[in-house]
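Figure 6 in text form: structure in, sequence out.
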């Protein structure tokens, strides 16, 4: 017995040694923690996803991508009548280039508030540019702690070249198992110490070189593997990574009894030519030129179709698709546009197989497929998604983001377990879309900036923006150039709309400001009174409550809140707030 006891002690000694070092490091304040949610410094009643979350994946002193998570707020304590939805994904889920108002979270938050006027609805964005399934998996436990009623996922484009992606410069390891282990260990101070020591001693060139490329876009810095052929080992590893991580993510939410709404992803295949391709031979190029001059030659075109199906040139398949669109059989173009995207060697767009992974994962219990790609294809000529919904290779325009949000909205409606559903028609929701023309111009400028660099052009081009057409675009340009901040842009917009007696746009602007500033009692009180006058008592109660939590403790506000709660049938909450007013 003693022998086994000594053996056990011998085995435990190293673990105790490392545990003591870990404890000492923590006691001494060494290392860092970057929790997903932090307290709102302007109002302790609210928390928000931390903007610099990306730092948790990098050691001190390393090159960190300049990506942030946009501020959006939720109550620290979920209310009794609360409904919470969390959005996960990359830049498309986050609404790039428009920000929160044009995002999935922004558009759904507004619409679901109208759908459930008697509930406290929060649609929280945790999506961020450049992240992929590793980050989604890493954030899941912290999201679960916030008691979500559902999680909405739109992701898949960053599996190869996003942060921790298998073909990225910003990768933690060369294998999926090692990367998953990194996610588990990164919070340990001992692990951080080892990272920092390695970082300081490393003499290898950090990639990308921030000193020489500091002004370049993230896309210009991120791609380590610029050549990932279809069905190559690294291509298959990227799909395996996506499939494994999605399944692990789903299992976390299944264990917490949280439904997952998982969307197919879309990209621009019709007007975005391949970024990198095997060359087209001279002989085939000659055939293309002849056919281009005689588009009615269906026999020649069919011969070219067969040739393209057997050829791994993305550019060839793209040119054949373009010729097919201009022929008498344009419905066949989708096949070759899709092949062109899948054969593109530079994988900034997810291959078709990623949607196969998503559809397979959606068969799991508690997972609901949101077929965004199908919805966008149904609204596109010949089923080919192009510039009708896309700004460049994969980011949606305002109409595209609205359809993305509407497709999720319809899926949530079909699920229908969140309470009485007051349907907000698509046409009404479009009129109320939570984005202003200055924000749209800022988004346009961001895309022009993105497309003035790699991979859209080999060398960075000087950005030249067109002259703004009106005062709204001028404000958007000033915001893009950082001459004014977002709040100033909104304040100036509000004054101008009011001076023009444009009540619809003035009211929209005030509502957007209230959503962005739950800690501002004045703007939230104004919105509350507006809803009260419109007999929308459930919504009025939400904003009266915000004004009170933001510090406006006038008895008239409490009385108005209690009245709104009673009128909307929320009698238990009315009693709760009556007790608070009695204690004043």
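Output sequence:
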């Amino acid at each position: 017995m003693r022998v086994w006891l000594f053996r056990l002690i011998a085995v435990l000694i190293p673990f105790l040694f490392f545990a003591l070092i870990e404890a000492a490091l923590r006691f001494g304040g060494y290392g860092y923690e970057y929790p997903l949610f932090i307290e709102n410094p302007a109002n302790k009643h609210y928390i928000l996803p931390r903007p610099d979350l990306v730092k948790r994946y990098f050691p001190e002193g390393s090159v960190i991508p300049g990506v942030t998570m946009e501020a959006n707020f939720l109550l620290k304590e979920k209310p009794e009548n609360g409904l919470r939805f969390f959005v996960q994904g990359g830049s498309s889920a986050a609404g790039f280039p428009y920000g929160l108002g044009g995002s999935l979270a922004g558009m759904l938050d507004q619409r679901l508030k109208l759908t459930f006027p008697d509930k406290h609805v929060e649609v929280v964005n945790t999506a961020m540019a450049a992240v992929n399934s590793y980050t989604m998996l890493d954030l899941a436990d912290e999201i679960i702690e916030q008691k979500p009623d559902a999680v909405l996922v739109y992701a898949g484009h960053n599996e190869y070249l996003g942060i921790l992606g298998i073909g990225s410069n910003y990768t933690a390891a060369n294998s999926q198992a090692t990367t998953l282990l990194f996610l588990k260990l990164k919070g340990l101070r001992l692990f951080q110490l080892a990272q920092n020591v390695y970082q300081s001693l490393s003499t290898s060139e950090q990639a990308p070189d921030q000193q020489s490329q500091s002004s370049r876009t993230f896309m210009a810095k991120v791609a380590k593997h610029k050549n990932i052929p279809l069905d190559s080992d690294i291509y298959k590893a990227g799909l395996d990574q996506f499939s494994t991580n999605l399944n692990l993510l789903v299992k976390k939410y299944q264990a917490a009894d949280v439904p997952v709404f998982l969307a197919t992803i879309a990209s621009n295949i019709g007007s975005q030519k391949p970024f990198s391709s095997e060359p087209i031979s001279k002989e085939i190029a000659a055939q293309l030129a002849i056919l281009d001059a005689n588009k009615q030659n269906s026999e020649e075109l069919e011969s070219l179709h067969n040739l393209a199906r057997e050829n791994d040139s993305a550019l060839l398949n793209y040119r054949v698709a373009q010729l097919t669109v201009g022929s008498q059989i344009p419905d066949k173009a989708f096949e070759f546009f899709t092949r062109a995207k899948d054969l593109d060697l530079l994988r900034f767009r997810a291959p078709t197989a990623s949607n196969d992974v998503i559809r397979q994962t959606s068969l799991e219990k508690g997972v609901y497929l949101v077929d965004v790609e199908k919805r966008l294809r149904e609204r596109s000529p010949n089923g080919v998604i192009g510039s009708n919904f896309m700004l460049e290779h994969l980011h949606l325009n305002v109409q595209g983001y609205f359809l993305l949000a509407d497709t999720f909205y319809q899926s949530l409606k079909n699920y229908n377990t969140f309470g009485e559903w007051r349907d907000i028609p698509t046409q009404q929701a479009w009129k109320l879309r939570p984005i202003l023309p200055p924000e749209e111009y800022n988004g346009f400028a961001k895309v022009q900036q993105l497309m003035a660099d790699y991979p859209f052009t080999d060398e960075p081009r000087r950005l030249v923006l067109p002259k703004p057409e009106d005062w709204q675009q001028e404000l958007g340009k000033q915001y893009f150039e950082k001459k004014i901040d977002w709040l100033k842009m909104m304040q100036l917009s509000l004054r101008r709309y009011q001076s023009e007696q444009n009540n619809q746009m003035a009211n929209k602007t005030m509502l957007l400001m209230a959503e962005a500033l739950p800690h501002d009692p004045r703007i939230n009180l104004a919105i509350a009174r507006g809803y009260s006058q419109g007999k929308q008592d459930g919504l009025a109660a939400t904003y009266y409550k915000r004004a009170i939590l933001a510090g406006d403790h006038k008895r008239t506000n409490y009385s108005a809140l209690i009245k709104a709660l009673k009128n909307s049938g929320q009698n238990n909450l009315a009693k709760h707030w009556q007790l608070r007013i009695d204690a004043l």
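Caption detail: The first strand starts at residue 37 and ends at 39.
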